[in-house]
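hey can u run this one w/ 4'-deoxy-4'-aminopyridoxal-5'-phosphate bound, need the structure tokens asap thx
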Amino acid sequence: SSTENLFTVETSKSIFEEACTYIPGGVTAHIKYMTPHPIVMKEAKGSKLVDVDGNVYIDYLLCSGSLLTGHGHPAITEAVTNQLHDMGTTIFGTPHLLEQQMAKRVIELYNGIEMARFTNSGLEATLLAIRIAKGFTGREKLAKFEGHYHGGYDQSLISVNPTMEEAGDTKRPTPVPESRGISNYYLEKTVVLPFNDLEATIQLLTENKDEIAAVIMEPVQGGYIPATQEFMEGLREITEKYGIVLIFDEVKTGFRVSMGGAQGYYNIAPDITTLGKVLGGGFPVGLVGGRKEIMEITNPISSRDILSASVETNKEKNGNKDSVLFHSGTYYGHPTILSAGKATLDLLEKDGILDKTIERTMWLRQELEALYARYGVTMKTIGLGTIFNIVFTDKEILNYRDMQESDFSMRDKIDRRLLELGVYIKPLTRYSMSTEHTQEDLEKTVALHEQVLKELTNK
Ligand code: PMP
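ok here u go:
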């Protein structure tokens, strides 16, 4: 077709090749890599990306979902510019008013958050959440779910994306390191749980109940496989019974499933919550918040006095029990970033815009499902709120292993052709929506899917 002839990414290719001289693999984060080479961008606005060869894409990656209000929203640009101008500096390195205003705002929105602290990224938020849980309970093990991602550090890089050979028993998954360089210590101290399998989860938690500090989870795995209501309720009940800290990692779901995150949707309060992505309005941010009693152990003055009874009984095991739980970082609570976050929350709370974006996401999902059905291709969309995924299977998808049985090669073929046609989705990743995706964008997306289907099915 003529479109095919017009599509070229030659400039991207040559920039990438030179980047490989200075940067291993040519990318500053694995997530930006794709074969045969990544596409290098030069501009973006609203729902669109423009690459260095001048190709325009409707963006469904949206910086891994961070950009819920699209690229370069004028209200965010203005807020950041004003903040820099009014403060006269980029950062104070001291307390400032916006910190408490933003903390208060998040506390009002999230069931499980009574006090909060900021970090620079989602990674740091979950890392800190786990340390707080260990400090609070005096226990050393972490339970996490197979296929759930919480950031790129040793403790969480276990069983995120294992092969089926490595993964072991479905009901008792083997802890698998995701990277070289991860100490055996973390494998020994991690219990891997099967998502959405309450019986097996209860069994594993019961076996390790005196050693597990926390269960950490993505309430919606990968942002697109929702926990069942029954699973969430069962998990809340069993963790409470055993005194295990329940951590909802809402870095993806925060402000995307509802303003109050997935915990608002399920109406369940975790003990600790982590946020990131949308909260920074496109700037790097993280937040860890939770029950007052737990969060107070990060208080540099009083943490000595309020350590839980369980820590007291573990005195011998934990030599440092009396010390403060360390939480600090040069840039934490950065005013420029919080001003972008504040502008983002203002935008999302205006005129029910989040609900409208969720409705438009549903519209796109339904149109795509109907389209594929018309072409006789077995496909379904799964997701919650403003994120979904396209899966080629007729089976129910409840966890990581179900996903592995879907047809990835079909998905890959379609994604690559869509890239050429102007839909930006990194092959095999989920679709994230923004408030700036117009009806026209969505209709065009459906039409381009139809073009790909025509080519693939010769219909
Ligand atoms: N937790 C979840 C659920 C995430 O999706 C991510 C990022 N994709 C992280 C933690 C890590 O966040 P960051 O990339 O900001 O470090």
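Residues 64, 121-123, 126, 149-151, 218, 249, 251-252, 276 surround 4'-deoxy-4'-aminopyridoxal-5'-phosphate (CB under 6 Å). anyway lmk if its weird
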